[in-house]
Structures are given as C-alpha cells and as structure tokens.
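Table 4 source record.
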Amino acid sequence: MNIPSNLRYTNEHEWIRVEGDVAYVGITDYAQSELGEIVFVDINTEGETVAQGEVFGSVEAVKTVSDLNMPVEGEVLEVNETINDQPELVNNDPYGEGWMIKISIANPAELDTLLDAEAYQALIG
C-alpha cells in the first residue's frame, strides 16, 4: 500500500498535499483499492468554501458511492477536469494525476489535526 510521507490524511481516507498557498486533495491508495473500479467523480463545489469534515463531492465505483470529505476548511479553487473523462486515474495514480480538487486553506492550524503517514498506516492496519 502506497502511503507517501509528505501528505496528511483523514480518518475517511482523503489526503492533502500543501504546495505554497494552495493544497491538492484526493483519496488514498487504500480508499481506491477498497472502492474498486471508479467510474464517476461528482464534485460541484468549485468556488465554494467547505468546512473541515464536510462533503465536497462523491466518487462512484461499480458497486458503491462514497462521499468525499474535506480534510481542512478551504475554498475549492479548481476541480480536476481530467478525471471527468478518465476516472480510472483515481485508481491508477491517486496521489498524482488522480487528484480531485485544489483548495485555498482557510485555517492552516487544521492541518495539525490530520494523520501523518505513520498514523494513517496504523489506522488501515
């Protein structure tokens, strides 16, 4: 299982990568493997500020639909349009081309409430 050490994680299996003033958010390798083949990603919160823990979209796999929860409060600046046409990128490259949203973080202190790679590994076993 791939758990990059430069990311922070939620208990709901989202990851966040901070790059300067923005951050990228997606689902973890564990989450995509548990969901199975992802067929659709539905995110319509671009331009909205979403609170930590609130739903910013959903991901649909062959057998289930799962909510996507915001790791920290922030404004959704951009949705990865590539995954609309190629949702399999979330399965194939969850930490790279399969990112879901780019956000502006409202409260950087919330990052400290998230799991590091070691704690996330312990969560998933």
